[in-house]
TrEMBL record:
GO terms for molecular function: transferase activity. InterPro entries: WD40/YVTN_repeat-like_dom_sf. Keywords: Transferase. It comes from the Bacteria. This is Glycosyl transferase. Gene3D superfamilies: YVTN repeat-like/Quinoprotein amine dehydrogenase. It comes from Bacteroides stercorirosoris.
Length: 225
């Protein structure tokens, strides 16, 4: 690694920006993250972070540390705090896709977990305990983009063989899961232009909002629950 690349790892990473003061602070550098609880880390690999998600109280967040080595991707899911005083590995088994907060103590994520099974899991951030989310409907469609308001879990699917994306809802209180709909995703939208549904609940939990290209262009839609 040359001096320029090393400086980039030292001078970039996760930043905290104060909008009222117009100031910014590097909370965790890429070098710090790459070296954290990793044996024989390869700093010559391409390191980056993404999917930063802050909890409701605003004191902690999760993120994915992703690095590419000889075109092979490795992922880790980490927990941190906004003061720069905490780093904790929640998942480290090569693949982490998308995640969200269920509550202040629990993360919901699609990743490679117990027995190397790729699925949705819940993770207790205090104990680190990982639990398989054993729901047949969510398991049927696999990886998606989950979100939650603490009562319901929403997720979607990538386009299937019929080029349809599926919108899913799970009620954590009743244990009921159902498909809210499926939406056509044309072949003209691919790679960087692919449009994931990225569903979100309204604050009153009466509507689900999502992106779609089902009518030939990207638009924002909603479904009444």
């Amino acid at each position: 690694m040359n001096d320029i690349e090393l400086r980039q790892l030292n001078n970039d990473g996760i930043w905290k920006i104060d909008y009222s003061e117009g100031t910014s602070l590097l909370l965790y550098s890429l070098e710090q993250i790459a070296n954290f609880e990793t044996e024989n880390v390869d700093l010559n690999a391409f390191h980056k972070v993404n999917h930063l998600m802050i909890n409701k109280t605003g004191d902690k967040f999760i993120f994915i540390h992703r690095y590419l080595k000889k075109n092979v991707r490795f992922d880790r899911l980490l927990l941190a705090d906004v003061r720069g005083n905490l780093l904790k590995v929640l998942a480290d088994n090569e693949m982490v896709s998308h995640c969200c907060w269920l509550n202040e103590n629990t993360i919901f994520a699609y990743l490679r977990g117990i027995d190397n099974i790729d699925s949705y899991y819940s993770i207790d951030i205090q104990t680190g305990k990982m639990t398989l989310f054993d729901n047949s409907l969510f398991r049927k469609y696999g990886d998606g983009h989950p979100s939650s308001n603490g009562r319901f879990i929403l997720s979607d699917s990538y386009p299937d063989k019929a080029l349809h994306q599926h919108l899913l809802l799970y009620d954590m209180k009743s244990g009921e899961a159902k498909e809210l709909g499926s939406f056509f995703h044309g072949l003209s939208y691919n790679e960087e232009t692919r449009c994931d549904l990225h569903p979100r609940l309204s604050p009153d939990a009466k509507r689900v909002f999502f992106d779609s290209v089902c009518n030939g262009k990207r638009q924002l839609y909603y479904i009444d629950l």
